[in-house]
Amino acid sequence: MIDSQGAVVVDLLQLRYFVQVVDLRSFTKAAAALHIAQPAITRHVHLLEDELGVQLLYRHSRGAEPTEAGRQLRMGAQAIFRLLEQTRADVIASSAVVSGSLRIGFPPSMGDLLLGDVIGTFRSRHPNVELSLQEGYSHAMRDALLGDRLDLAFITGQDVNPLLVTTHLYDEQIWLMEPPAADGAPRRKKRYQLADVASRDLIQPSRANTLRQMLDDQAARQKLTLKVVVEAEALHLIKDLVRRGVGSHLSPYSAVVRGIERGAFIGGPVAGLSVSRFLVRRVDRPVSLALTRFQDILTARLAEIHQTAKGAVVLPGPADGSRQRSRRR
Fold first, then answer.
1. Domain region containing 313
2. Which residue among 66, 91, 196, 247 is the one 20 to 30 A from 328 at the CA level?
3. Which family does it belong to (predicted)?
């Protein structure tokens, strides 16, 4: 496009499509990642080349590779996108009142020790923000982010996707939660080996659950089989079944520790078992002030838990914590 001064004006949408093709080295993959038809993305890239008057991509049977001009444009485009995102954030931050909406996804195994406290604090400080909380497995959270049905999601295990920014939040131990003592006598925290767990009747989520898959894989590596006698997804139901003596339950520390500390259950960590939690958002969506404030409260609460968890929750080191995987890498 040529403006009234005769200068070439580049469309931002065309730039985004072009960068996606370069990063994935394929028109087909770029179209699938962006959820648009391939002819549309091809047409926009052709228009971009026509407007700039240079060839940006080498097309071949295996996909596409950037020319030298294409590599230069990609570097410039990434800088433009970063500037746009920062400018949006600065404009939003200029408002004295945090408002709008925030859609957050989280896995069933994330307990109230973290999420409940963070949501409660956030609501008390920012009552003008409308919150939508959605529970689901990690793959469903990823799909909801890509489908623009969530703004932010907690997932178990790292999921590398060029359209997502993934930040390592923390690692936490896996604990076994067992029924309380029949005589009601208090029990000290116990420690378990995976072989101890294999002898228990367990109540766990289905095999679609990321944590369940990890536990089954770990048991298989030790030539053990976990005896799951009941499959249930809702954490409150699982706790009720454990309380009734139906079985025991493996879950992250944050999901079960409060019940164990109160004496409603007995339990403790399983040696060698832990789970990694990540915070994920779309790379091409502006970071709202509400999202920034939520992350501030989350970071502060994680630091508090880390101080009191006695090794059950481990925060990433500076290099790891700042590592973010997205299409900008």
1. 100-170+276-325
2. 91
3. Belongs to the LysR transcriptional regulatory family.
DSSP category for residue 316: P
User: How confident is the model over 181-202, as pLDDT tens digits?
Assistant: 776 555 556 899 999 999 999 9
Q: Are 261 and 187 part of one and the same domain?
A: yes
Structure tokens, 157? 């295990």
Residue 196 shares a structural domain with residue 261: yes
Task: List, in sequence order, every residue forming a beta bridge with 171; answer none if it has no partner.
Answer: 276, 314
Residues 216, 201: Cα–Cα separation, whole Å: 14
**177 confidence band (pLDDT: 50, 70, 90):** very high
Burial of 230 (0-12, 13-18, 19+ CB in 10 A): middle
Residue after which a domain boundary falls, among 93, 114, 138: 93
Which amino acid, one-letter code, is at 23? D
Residue 270 contacts residue 169 (beta carbons within 8 Å): no
Look up residue 280 and give its two tokens: 């994920």
Whether 132 maps to a domain, the answer reads yes
Q: Which of 261, 281, 270 is nearest to 112 (CA)?
A: 261
CA distance 2 to 51: 8
Sequence length of the chain is 329
Query: What region, left, alpha or beta, does residue 28 occupy, with left being phi > 0 and alpha being psi -120 to 50 degrees?
Result: alpha
For 112, other C-beta atoms within 10 Å of its C-beta total 14
